[in-house]
Amino acid sequence: MRGDGAPYVGQGLRRREDPVLIRGAGTFTGDLPLDAPLHLAFVRSPVARGRLVSVDRDDAAEMPGVLAIHLRDDLGEIGQLAVNPVIPLHDLPDFPVLAGGEVFSVGQPVAAVLAETLAEAQDAAEAVFPEIEDLAIDAPREVARQSWQSGDVAAAFAKADRVVSVRLQHPRLAPAPMEPRAIAVAYDAATDGVTVWQSSQTPHRTRNALSDILGVERARIRVIAPHVGGAFGMKASLYPEEVFAVWAALHHRRDVKWSSTRSEDFLAATHGRGVTSSGELALDAAGTFLALRAEAVGPVGHWLPESGLVTSWNAARVLPSGYRVEALDVTARAELHNTGLTGIYRGAGRPEANCLMERLIDKAAAELSVDPLDLRRRNLLRPSDLPHETGTGNLLDSGDYAAALDQLERAVDRPALIADRDRRRGEGELVGVGIGFYVEPSGSGWESARVTLGTDGTATVESGSSSQGHGRETAFAQIAADALGLHPDEIAVTCGDTATCPEGIGALASRSTPIGGSAVLRACEEVMARQRAGEALPITAELRYENEGMAWGYGAFLAVMSVDRDTGSPTLERAVCVDDTGRVINPVSVAGQITGGFAQAVGEAMMERVVYDEDGQLLTGSFMDYAMPRATDIPPLDLFKTETPSPLNALGAKGVGEAGTIGAPAAILNAAIDALRPLGVSDLDMPLTPETLWRAIRAAQDETTP
Question: Are residue 88 and residue 233 in the same domain, yes or no?
């Protein structure tokens, strides 16, 4: 038992998850031994749009070790993947386990090969020849739309003294977790069921989706998420390859194993971002925000993953961030394209919304010749305004937004920073300072927990959430330790198994600690109440906890960037942030989440971009073509914090897992534009590569050359 009585919540305890991973003793999906499994390889479409005329599989079927080569017609009736309708969906494309009469993207699975070894499956896949008649690329097709209006937008723009506009094309990103997608399926002849190990964020959702698509009772499917080597949203949905693996195990009554290659993930896993956003901000002469018009258009590829609409939804509905804007006209749209998929990726629309708002504000500050920090401060909601319902239907819960800017300004001695920037500019350097305020909604809804206090004085916590390296088990042990009066080492935490854990949602949208942790807390409180009432041990409490609304984290980033005038090469010289993540469970984990998110933000802002040509061919299909940030590309990040508990969940916690990806891109982009502003540059798109910046410098010089 605990001796000193100090609370464990708020302490930077070492993560209990790390030792086994540091020793290289983790168990990932690809590590799992199965009983003489069939190995799976896919034949993929080489064209982006076409009619599937025939598939020649005769020679491949005779190759050593090949058990079967399946086409779409072999599968029989296949159900539809459920899609989260966060915005109204009016055109749902089919879920293509294998391509039928047509193909809609390069990399779409056309046939599946099952063989005794992986090498035999891959060799046979190369001997399968699909005949595909080329068709013209389809025009983008809208599948979902939602609009929000409040106030008299037309009147506000008519009386405005200043209107600024911004259009941003966000690069499409490849999430690229260390572990690609993977699934291992063990067939059980006694039950005619399967145990599925999957590298997944959502094991219960996987089980339910497999049941619905394949028409198999849920009791016959067990899903386990073992160690997961990163996910970032890419592993939130169920993929065609995974559905086929389970179908094949049930059909052939054999174990089946598949792991995606890195190239297959570039082709056929979900990408992130890719949103085109545009907006107009109306201001009066004093710089007060009067009205906002904005539209966010998100590509979703050629079919919709389970959270495929979330990016477009967030990119619009998070507007107008934490600012007072009485009149709004905001639209979210999602479109199909003949490309790979686009789904949620760390932040999922939040960076796009915040980036648009912060660019509009910086542009307005430049045109009004006012301090961009002061312009933000005068328009941010005050603590007394919270909770505040925005024109897009969000309830901002708690905080002091302007105080975060004040703390940031003090932390960097901003007057001295600006003076140094101006001095360097006078000496001919291109250097800029950028700010990005942000808000971060965490998830809403429910999560589950089961807590057992044993006769030996130890406890177990079983959560419906899951973990991909977040430190979830450590945080839940800290929460339970305080509630039960135990040491964290006396508490076992498990998650990610549909057979042993209560049904839950999973790790999405920075929801697991605010909602999943609150479920753990409430279950522990029930256990203690029953023990105080005299109930004998062991005592088990299981409950489903639902929060009262989204908890909104917030903060601000500052970046200093210099740009080489001759080559366009950027240098991110300094980065500082202030974050309010509500009640902090483990400050070490919080710092790690913010720093990791910042590293991905640097990738988005400065180097990463998935590119397709006009024929729908992927030009960035490996790390030879797709630039990922290395350790030497990431500057030190100075972290500061405030702590305002959320009133909308039992813990008072707010999301933090996506903060770095949300706030940093706007600050970096604003810093780059500030660096080039003396040349007349007022707009740039990410990634801010040397070529992008060099072209902007040359174009600005050409315009000023007589």
Answer: yes
